[in-house]
Amino acid sequence: MDKESLGAIIASEVEIILNVEKPYLHLLRRPAYPDNPSTRESLEVHIKELMDLGVLRNVVHNEQVEVTTPVIIAWHHGRSRMVKDFRALDTYTIPERYPIHRIHETLTKLSQAKSITAMDALNSFPQNVLTNNAKKLLRIIVPCGMHEYLRMPFGIKNTPSHYQKMLNTIFLEELAEGWLIIYIDNIIVCSETC
To answer: In this structure, what CATH number is given to the domain that contains residue 180?
Structure first.
């Protein structure tokens, strides 16, 4: 996948609002986690992929940096995954309180349908553009440098709520008609009524 094929949802920029005032250095500037040669290679591959997609950019040496989030590589079934440790940032992020469907309510609606089509939005979170403030708060640090997210990463506190709210706004009429169910980035179309 390349930059052009990722897409960008610009109607709903993602903002992060903190409940603390600047400077954040003692609260939110964290050092890189140590690595080893095998994890470093995987980390560099993941970072290059995200930079090629336009999701990350390098932070240059003369930029003021107050917030850094460390990253680790996790392995699952022989495949690596880049995991950001946003716990410190999430602690000081004001929660976006937006309701997400309860599973039992969704299952009740689905039990009434005669036909169901389920779709999972591909690379849905990184299609959301960040505000300039949010970009500065979403800087990651690794042993080989610092990078800034330009798009919404998975793992920050308000990601599910923001995405649910955005899709509910886009599909407001369809949701009101009752034949569409949205659960974060999963879209379910039902025949008859749901």
So the answer is: 3.10.10.10
Res. 194: pLDDT tops 70: no
Question: For the chain, how long is the longest CA-to-CA vector?
Answer: 60
Q: DSSP label at 191?
A: S
Containing structural domain, residue 183? 3-190
Q: Are 30 and 142 in contact (CB under 8 A)?
A: no
Nearest to 93 by CA among 24, 146, 36, 148: 24
**Tokens standing for 194?**
């749901």
The pTM of the whole model exceeds 0.90? no
Burial of residue 69 (CB within 10 Å: 0-12, 13-18, 19+) is buried
pLDDT in tens, 85-134: 999 999 999 999 998 888 888 888 888 888 999 998 888 888 889 999 99
Predicted confidence (pLDDT) at residue 8 exceeds the cutoff of 60? yes
| Mean of pLDDT values over 150-157 | 92
Rounded CA gap, 21 and 19, in Å? Answer: 7
Question: How many domains does the structure of the chain reveal?
Answer: 1
Contact 46, 82 (CB under 8 A): yes
Integer CA distances (angstroms), 149 to 34, 38, 138, 156, in order: 21, 24, 6, 12
